[in-house]
């Protein structure tokens, strides 16, 4: 196995490529994780940037491209939206209004454009977005095939800490694993990757390429990704943003609570750390902490069977007569209308 990386250049991202030395009996997939920042509060500009990066990845032969958590819509790092227990500020409410405006409807015109990009560059695209459903926002991942079709979404089930102020909670209806020409693909976002039962639900669906868009650039993150690759016998592709203070609006419009005074425009506020790991726990590419980058590896899908020879977490290594998992995979809604109540509601509205 060899690692070849180009030197950093002001003309474009770093490209790290790995040759796994695969034989011709198993498919090999070129996968790329994108490490780049959102254009905050500017969704059209972020979509333009996504297309530039996607075109560049496709130019290097990528068949599968994974973008970071909340790439479209933005990860509101450092913000508390003016919220404290028992109090919200007018400035925080306005900040939420702007964040809500930058989110996207699913389906919607931005989803159509992402689908068109995937079809234009003939890549399977996994994109982190902020999804707008009425006035509730969700941190979601959207999936598109290489023919330009929208496949579906995963909503983050458990936002972390202050994220719960601005993001809703996903349910069991959006834990998909898609059977695609390059393998069975699904995603978990950031710290929900630490949820053993969620991981097990995805293993139960046969996931082979496990995407992990994140906002966690700490040095402990790669250990979690390695564990998941070993546990699931799957490839793990983790994409994080690389952001400097200047990638967010300046103060006082946008304030990094508690740290703003310590930051200058070039201060790194998210250091990346994107990486790709094999089912045997080998780091194939990354982690990269140097800047915006395209990080690529050739995935020998034969490694999945080799890894599961001695550990198949929901197969021959499981003990379902002792330990088992039940997943409630139906949508949950706040209001459900029965046929009779729906008719009554319609009748009432007609009388007004």
Automatic annotation (TrEMBL):
Catalytic activity: 3-cyano-L-alanine + 2 H2O = L-aspartate + NH4(+); L-asparagine = 3-cyano-L-alanine + H2O
Residue intervals of the CN hydrolase domain: 29-301
Protein origin, superkingdom: Eukaryota
Signal peptide interval: none
Any one GO MF annotation of this record: cyanoalanine nitrilase activity
Entry's Gene Ontology BP terms: cyanide catabolic process; detoxification of nitrogen compound
Alphabetized InterPro entries for the sequence: C-N_Hydrolase (IPR003010), C-N_Hydrolase_sf (IPR036526), Nitrilase/CN_hydratase_CS (IPR000132), Nitrilases_CHs (IPR044149)
Sorted UniProt keywords: Hydrolase
EC number: 3.5.5.4, 4.2.1.65
Active site, UniProt feature: 69 (proton acceptor)
SUPFAM superfamilies according to UniProt: Carbon-nitrogen hydrolase
Family: Belongs to the carbon-nitrogen hydrolase superfamily. Nitrilase family.
Protein name: 3-cyanoalanine hydratase
């Amino acid at each position: 196995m060899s690692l070849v990386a180009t030197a950093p250049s002001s003309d474009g991202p770093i490209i790290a490529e790995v040759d796994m030395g695969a034989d011709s009996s198993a498919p090999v997939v070129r996968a790329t994780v994108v490490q780049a920042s959102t254009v905050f509060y500017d969704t059209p500009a972020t979509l333009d940037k996504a297309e530039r990066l996607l075109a560049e990845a496709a130019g290097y032969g990528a068949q599968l491209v994974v973008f970071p958590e909340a790439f479209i819509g933005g990860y509101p790092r450092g913000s508390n939206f003016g919220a404290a227990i028992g109090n919200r500020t007018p400035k925080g409410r306005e900040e939420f209004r702007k964040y809500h405006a930058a989110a996207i409807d699913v389906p919607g015109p931005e989803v159509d454009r992402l689908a068109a990009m995937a079809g234009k560059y003939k890549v399977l695209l996994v994109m982190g977005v902020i999804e707008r459903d009425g006035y509730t926002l969700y941190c979601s991942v959207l999936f598109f095939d290489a023919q330009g079709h929208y496949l579906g979404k995963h909503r983050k089930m458990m936002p972390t800490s202050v994220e719960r102020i601005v993001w809703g909670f996903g349910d069991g209806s959006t834990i998909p694993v898609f059977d695609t020409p390059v393998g069975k693909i699904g995603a978990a976002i950031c710290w929900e990757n630490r949820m053993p039962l969620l991981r097990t639900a995805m293993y139960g669906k046969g996931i082979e390429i496990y995407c992990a868009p994140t906002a966690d650039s700490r040095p402990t993150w790669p250990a979690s990704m390695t564990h998941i690759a070993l546990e699931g016998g799957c490839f793990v592709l983790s994409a994080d943003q690389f952001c400097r203070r200047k990638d967010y609006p300046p103060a006082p419009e946008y304030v990094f609570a508690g740290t703003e005074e310590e930051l200058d425009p070039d201060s790194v506020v998210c250091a990346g750390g994107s990486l790709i790991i094999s089912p045997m726990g080998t780091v194939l590419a990354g982690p990269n902490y140097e800047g915006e980058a395209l990080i690529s590896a050739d995935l020998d899908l034969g490694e999945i069977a080799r890894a599961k020879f001695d550990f198949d977490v929901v197969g021959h290594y499981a003990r379902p007569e002792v330990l088992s998992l039940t997943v409630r995979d139906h949508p949950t809604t706040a209001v459900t209308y029965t046929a009779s109540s729906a008719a009554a509601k319609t009748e009432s509205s007609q009388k007004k």
